[in-house]
């Protein structure tokens, strides 16, 4: 390809000149091509890999040089000699003579450079190539990546790093390529090449380890292999990117959310030397935005625009606090360098004034921001204040004013207990004083004092507003006015699986609380849960959501409770409430890790008893609401909304720690659960102003003494003292590790269930089924990666039964058909795959599941001769218009049922009985198969000829196929002689309305005088009798479907041995003239050769025909010098003969007459070899996918 001219200082170093003229030089890289260049070539190849030289991709180049200059310019490079030669010839033909006209060397150089740049620009314009953000250096890496690993253009490279890969005990220095869907490694050292391709979706563990031998090491594990990489220049950056890409893969397995590049990022300067891709910058920006949103509890679509160091003046302690300012589309946030000192969130919707204050030595570059609630924030020490103000101004212009107004947080008491009222009053006063000093609402300063107030308990009447504030739900509610009302209106009266589950659980939601003992409370709970199910169908409804939501409704208004539920399900407890509670399982794994670290003496005991997995789900899913007295559990919810999930982990560890001695003495899980249940039941909140609410959680099964009371506030304080060192970023790191394990365990469980379900239905072994499932799933993932003809969400739905979770469309099926199915051969594979796919797709949704896929493959690999031939026959008869899809047939029956039900005739019960019989599954019989018409028969013939094109016994199979074809053609023609015109009409009607193909017409009768009975001496009689005897000997198949009185009428022997007469000559000319109701066969014999042309196909040699030939017509021979076949033996017609048809019995009987065909279809299939080959093809850079291990 032509490249922008680049200067080269040493033209001869490591390159060999192959062609030269006064202005241009064509060179080849040493060590490339035949011979390899000996030791020097090996060294050069090794250097190219280690030093990341582009010569590994483009080993040919063309240099430009003026005769009197020592400076060379690269103007083209190529990956092959053919490509570079084309460029060389173009230069010789178009530029050499022109250059000789110039007198000045500078003019020549300017002209050549301008010409090359013009060619590149024209090429980009013609091929619609748009400029991207990637640097030239990175584009070289992309080209190298695609060439080395055979990846398609759709596979996007993110970044690449120099490192060592430990292959056995030997490190191989090379390059690690990280793309969106794959981890790849390439090394070339002294002639030895090492390649590795691992799909992110196959990774089960990703660890950064430190050992004595390898201080920096990354270990990548899959289900069946382990890979170790070391000697990184920047291991932290590499590992973070690997984590991010593995997370994207897990997300895709979980809910089909693939990666979509963000095109809104600012562009790099074109000459930027940094080898960074636009994708890498995109992923870095995503990671920063995720941390930003988690830190300040912002909506999940908020994107960080930038951050800068600064100071913030805090009026409550009269200090300038050092920290960072974060600016995004809708928020300005600040956090101090010391985490607990101060944090601040300023929504731009609240901002009224942004102005630059006067700088001074004490306060350099200050920036003042004022809000609607009359608070002013003063930032200083801003490095690029003017740019920052401009960005904030731009975002303010995009911010629309909202109708939501924060209501003032006030308190009111309703308890009759004076002591409790006094405590509640003090709490309220403490919060009011805090608001006065630190501000109120979303813009207040959040400090260590705020946290202390939360830990002491939020006053009952302030709880709802403060939950909204601390969870960030207030921001989403403020920016979506009217959203909840619209959702309630849209979901009203709609019914689905989620609404059914909601109705079932409504009366189980805090039934002990008075608020949910009447229809008003139940109706509000129903509206909130139903609205959320319609907002987020991927979650819909999950048990435990009803308990949490009912508590939210006790302290917040209905709309506020809805947005609190949104914050809980989508941000604070991610993936907790989906169909497989993945998030809760992930945090269960995190809890086990924390227990192992913080209570090691108890960990082994708990693991043996299996208690941790039992308790953690119920504790985490309901935030202790289902296992602790209500008035105590809401204090846990207070802390959760302020601090996040770390509070739940801390509290759970505290409960274990408090019962450590009792748990160590437990002998089984029941006893351990009793100990923990008793302890949690005893947790009390003496400051609660609520009337006592009976607690329904009862794990107590003995009559022992109740556990002493445990104060909830002391328990929480104890959890902070002992386990407060747990950090949010450490939890996220643990979550990543556990997410890999949990999702891969779910995938393995799905595979085991699928295999267990169908292993009894097929002859495949369990190992073979598991390998086939992996290939089936890999094909689905490949289409997710690089696009497909259908939506990935349609093909993968985790909420469906195991067999239905992964499905594939036609394009994916074609890929596996070519690799696994024994009939796939040559260019006809796609058309045959289409026929088989349509046959297997029983519900006509253009997708097949794993069971349907295995059913088809099982017949071809393990079926007997009859089953294989039946499948081949059905592939050409059933797909298309010839049978309505089962789905539409069911609809037809349902409509028939409804219509008949309305009839007031005495016979309607008879129709209903018929309908009921039709809906029952019946075993398939040979005679139930529809007849094959002439067009379908032609396609079947094409398939047979193509199927044998690469077989070792190709010639014998062609001979046999020609014989069977001739026999079947004549059977079809003779069969027409015994069907009345009315019966022919019935056949045509069946072709048009195949949904009633199972209803057979009455048996055919031959009208008097239509046919003349032959005498025993008639040649037709004698030859057909011989053939009939032959057919009956091989299986007694019935050659004709009509059952007229025709005991003495037989079929002609149509084997190639008899070349004397064709079937066209069976009826004399005199008989034809006299018979007014002659068959169309006699007339069509004199027609065109169009039918012959229809029977031809590209894979059949020109000298191949399908039926016999008479010597007088100069017949053509079969390949290999077979007997001549008669073109006249075929019915010639300008159109398909609608009356012609054969049955499956006739097809089977005809095939059984030829030993070559019988041997072909009975030949055993090496299933294991085909599966191994398919896996190897995928591993070695097949254009679809690469699979590791």
TrEMBL record:
Keyword Plastid: no
Gene3D superfamilies: EF-hand, Pleckstrin-homology domain (PH domain)/Phosphotyrosine-binding domain (PTB), putative rabgap domain of human tbc1 domain family member 14 like domains, Ypt/Rab-GAP domain of gyp1p, domain 1, Ypt/Rab-GAP domain of gyp1p, domain 3
GO biological process, one term: system process
Keywords: GTPase activation, Repeat
One term of GO molecular function: GTPase activator activity
Domain of life the protein comes from: Eukaryota
Region listing for Disordered, in residue ranges: 1004-1081, 1108-1128
SUPFAM superfamilies named among the record's database cross-references: EF-hand, Ypt/Rab-GAP domain of gyp1p
Biased composition (Basic and acidic residues): 1047-1056
Record-annotated Rab-GAP TBC domain positions: 457-644
Biased composition, class Polar residues, residue ranges: 1017-1031
Compositionally biased region (Gly residues): 1112-1123
Residues of the EF-hand domain: 828-863
Function: May act as a GTPase-activating protein for Rab family protein(s).
Name used for this protein in its record: TBC1 domain family member 9
Lineage: Eukaryota, Metazoa, Chordata, Craniata, Vertebrata
The gene coding this protein: tbc1d9
């Amino acid at each position: 390809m032509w490249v922008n001219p680049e200067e080269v200082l040493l033209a001869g170093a490591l390159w060999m000149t192959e062609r030269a003229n006064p202005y241009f030089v064509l060179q080849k890289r040493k060590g490339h091509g035949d011979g390899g260049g000996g030791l020097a070539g090996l060294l050069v190849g090794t250097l190219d890999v280690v030093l990341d030289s582009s010569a590994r991709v483009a080993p040919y180049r063309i240099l430009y040089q003026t005769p009197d200059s020592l400076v060379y310019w690269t103007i083209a490079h190529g990956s092959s000699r053919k490509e570079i030669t084309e460029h060389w010839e173009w230069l010789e033909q178009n530029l050499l003579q022109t250059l000789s006209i110039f007198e000045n060397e500078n003019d020549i150089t300017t002209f050549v450079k301008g010409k090359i740049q013009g060619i590149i620009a024209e090429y980009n314009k013609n091929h619609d190539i748009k400029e991207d953000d990637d640097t030239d250096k990175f584009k070289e890496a992309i080209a190298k990546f695609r060439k080395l690993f055979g990846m398609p253009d759709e596979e996007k490279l993110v970044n690449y790093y120099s490192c060592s890969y430990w292959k056995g005990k030997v490190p191989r220095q090379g390059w690690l390529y990280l793309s969106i869907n794959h981890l790849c490694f390439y090394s070339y050292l002294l002639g030895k090449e090492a390649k590795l391709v691992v799909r992110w979706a196959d990774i089960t563990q990703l660890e950064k380890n430190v050992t004595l031998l390898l201080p920096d090491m990354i270990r990548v594990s899959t289900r069946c292999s382990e890979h170790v990489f070391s000697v990184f220049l920047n291991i932290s950056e590499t590992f973070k990117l690997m984590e991010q890409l593995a997370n994207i893969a897990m997300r895709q397995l979980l809910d089909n959310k693939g990666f979509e590049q963000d095109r809104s990022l600012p562009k790099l300067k074109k000459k930027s030397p940094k080898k960074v891709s636009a994708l890498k910058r995109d992923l870095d920006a995503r990671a920063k935005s995720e941390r930003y949103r988690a830190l300040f509890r912002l909506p999940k679509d908020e994107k960080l625009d930038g951050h800068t160091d600064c100071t913030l003046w805090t009026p409550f302690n009269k200090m300038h606090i050092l920290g960072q300012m974060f600016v995004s589309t809708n928020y300005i946030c600040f956090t101090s360098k010391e985490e607990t000192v101060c944090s601040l969130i300023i929504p731009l919707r609240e901002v009224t004034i942004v102005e630059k204050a006067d700088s001074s030595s004490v306060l350099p570059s200050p920036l003042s921001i004022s809000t609607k609630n009359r608070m002013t924030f003063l930032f200083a020490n801003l490095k690029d204040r003017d740019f920052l103000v401009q960005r904030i101004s731009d975002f303010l212009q995009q911010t629309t004013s909202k109708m939501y107004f924060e209501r003032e947080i006030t308190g009111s008491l309703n308890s009759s207990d004076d002591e409790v009222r006094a405590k509640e009053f003090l709490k309220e006063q403490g919060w009011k004083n805090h608001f006065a000093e630190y501000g109120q609402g979303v813009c207040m300063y959040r400090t260590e004092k705020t946290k202390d107030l939360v830990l002491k308990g939020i006053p009952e009447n302030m709880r709802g507003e403060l939950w909204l504030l601390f969870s960030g739900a207030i921001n989403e509610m403020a920016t979506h006015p009217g959203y909840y009302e619209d959702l309630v209106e849209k979901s009203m009266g709609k019914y689905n699986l989620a609404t059914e589950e909601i109705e079932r659980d409504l009366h189980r939601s805090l039934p002990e609380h008075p608020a949910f003992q009447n229809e008003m409370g139940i109706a509000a709970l129903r509206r909130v849960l139903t609205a959320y199910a319609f907002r987020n169908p991927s979650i819909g409804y999950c048990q435990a959501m009803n308990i949490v939501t009912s508590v939210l409704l006790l302290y917040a208004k209905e709309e506020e409770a809805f947005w609190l539920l949104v914050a809980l399900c989508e941000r604070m407890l991610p993936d907790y409430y989906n169909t497989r509670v993945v998030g809760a399982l992930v945090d269960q794994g995190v809890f086990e890790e924390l227990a192992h670290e913080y209570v090691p003496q108890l960990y082994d005991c708990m693991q043996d008893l299996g208690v941790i997995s039992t308790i953690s789900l119920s504790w985490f899913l309901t935030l202790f609401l289902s296992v602790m007295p209500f008035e105590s559990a809401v204090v846990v919810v207070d802390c959760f909304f302020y601090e996040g999930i770390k509070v739940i982990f801390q509290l759970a560890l505290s409960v274990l720690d408090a019962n450590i001695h009792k748990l160590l003495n437990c002998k089984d899980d029941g006893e351990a659960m009793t100990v923990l249940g008793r302890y949690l039941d005893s947790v009390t909140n003496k400051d609660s102003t609520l009337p006592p609410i009976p607690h329904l959680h009862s794990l107590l099964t003995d009559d022992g003494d109740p556990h002493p009371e445990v104060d909830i506030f002391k328990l929480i304080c104890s959890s902070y003292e002992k386990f407060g060192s747990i950090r949010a970023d450490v939890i996220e790191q643990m979550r990543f590790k556990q997410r890999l394990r949990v999702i891969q365990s779910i995938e393995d469980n799905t595979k085991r269930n699928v295999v267990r379900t169908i292993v009894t239905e097929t002859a495949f072994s369990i190992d073979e089924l598991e390998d086939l499932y992996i290939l089936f799933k890999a094909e689905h993932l490949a289409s997710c990666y690089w696009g497909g003809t259908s939506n990935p969400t349609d093909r993968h739905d985790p909420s469906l039964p195991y067999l239905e979770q992964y499905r594939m469309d036609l394009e994916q099926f074609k890929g596996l058909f070519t690799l696994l199915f024994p009939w796939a051969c040559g260019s006809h594979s796609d058309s045959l795959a289409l026929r088989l796919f349509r046959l297997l797709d029983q519900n006509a949704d253009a997708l097949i599941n794993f069971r349907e896929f295995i059913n088809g493959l099982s017949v071809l690999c393990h079926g007997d001769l009859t089953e294989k031939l039946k499948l081949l026959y059905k592939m050409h008869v059933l797909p298309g218009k010839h049978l309505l899809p089962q789905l539409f047939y069911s609809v037809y029956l349902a409509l028939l049922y409804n219509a008949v039900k309305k009839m007031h005739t005495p016979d309607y019960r008879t129709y209903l009985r018929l309908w009921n019989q039709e809906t029952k599954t019946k075993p398939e019989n040979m005679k139930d198969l529809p007849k094959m018409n002439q067009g379908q028969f032609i396609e079947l013939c094409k398939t047979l000829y193509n199927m044998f094109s690469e077989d070792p016994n190709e010639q014998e199979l062609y001979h046999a196929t020609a014989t069977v074809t001739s026999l079947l053609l004549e059977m079809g023609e003779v069969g027409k002689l015994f069907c009345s015109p009315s019966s022919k009409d019935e056949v045509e009607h069946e072709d048009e309305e195949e949904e009633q193909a199972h209803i057979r017409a009455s048996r055919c009768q031959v009208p008097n005088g239509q046919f003349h009975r032959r005498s025993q001496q008639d040649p037709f009689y004698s030859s057909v009798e011989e053939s009939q005897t032959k057919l009956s000997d091989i299986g007694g198949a019935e050659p004709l479907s009509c059952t007229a009185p025709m005991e003495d009428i037989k079929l002609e022997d149509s084997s190639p041995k008899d070349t004397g007469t064709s079937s066209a000559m069976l009826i004399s000319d005199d008989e034809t003239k006299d018979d007014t109701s002659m068959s169309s066969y006699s007339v069509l014999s004199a027609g065109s050769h169009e039918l012959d042309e229809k029977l031809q196909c590209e894979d059949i040699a020109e000298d191949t025909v399908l039926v016999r030939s008479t010597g007088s017509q100069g017949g053509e021979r079969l390949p290999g010098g077979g007997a001549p076949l008669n073109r006249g033996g075929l019915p010639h017609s300008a159109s398909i003969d609608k009356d012609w048809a054969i049955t499956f019995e006739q097809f089977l009987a005809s095939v059984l007459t030829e030993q070559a065909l019988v041997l072909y279809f009975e030949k055993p299939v090496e299933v294991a070899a085909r599966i191994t080959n398919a896996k190897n093809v995928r591993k070695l850079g097949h254009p679809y996918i690469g699979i590791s291990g």
